[in-house]
């Protein structure tokens, strides 16, 4: 009997590659999210330090510079929070893409397994049929002699 051949093997390979690509994109999104979180935490620390320092300043020009710096840090924190929200949205999207790619791959893998089981059952049936035929021929020869 011919060797087992899964006709959708190339499609399965493409789905495996799509899943791997989706996993890479997910990893990139996780790294970007982590990077933005660290940056946000650092900026918030700077803002706290600036607030602490601003309370100790008595000279008006230094107070003005401190106020401008604090406002700049507040704007930076707000911008980084928006970036973080967007990065988290992208991360969720990438997770969904990974799950979809995994489902697509698993569907084909289950189909391949099912077809392989059917192939093995057919192979066993044919083999049993051949054995039965040989036994019948052997029995017929033994009785004719």
Automatic annotation (TrEMBL):
Gene3D superfamilies: 1.10.287.1700. One of its GO terms (biological process) is bacterial-type flagellum-dependent cell motility. It is a peripheral membrane protein. GO terms for cellular component: bacterial-type flagellum; plasma membrane. InterPro entries: Flag_assembly_chemotaxis_eff (IPR053716), Flagell_FliJ (IPR012823). Residues 9-46 form a coiled coil. It holds the Pfam family FliJ. It is found in: Cell membrane. Keywords: Bacterial flagellum biogenesis, Bacterial flagellum protein export, Cell membrane, Cell projection, Chemotaxis, Cilium, Coiled coil, Flagellum, Membrane, Protein transport, Transport. Belongs to the FliJ family. This is Flagellar FliJ protein. The lineage of its organism: Bacteria, Bacillati, Bacillota, Clostridia, Eubacteriales.
């Amino acid at each position: 009997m011919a060797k087992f051949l899964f006709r959708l093997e190339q499609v399965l390979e493409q789905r495996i590659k799509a899943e791997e690509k989706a996993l890479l994109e997910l990893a990139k999104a996780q790294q970007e999210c982590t990077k933005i979180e660290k940056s946000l935490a650092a900026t918030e620390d700077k803002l706290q330090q600036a607030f602490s320092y601003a309370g100790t300043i008595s000279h008006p020009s230094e107070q003005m510079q401190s106020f401008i710096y604090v406002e700049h840090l507040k704007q930076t924190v707000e911008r980084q929070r928006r970036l973080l929200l967007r990065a988290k949205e992208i991360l969720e999207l990438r997770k969904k893409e990974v799950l979809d790619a995994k489902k697509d791959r698993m569907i084909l893998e289950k189909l391949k397994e099912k077809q392989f089981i059917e192939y093995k059952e057919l192979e066993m049936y044919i083999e049993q049929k051949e054995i039965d035929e040989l036994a019948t021929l052997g029995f017929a020869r033994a009785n004719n002699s």
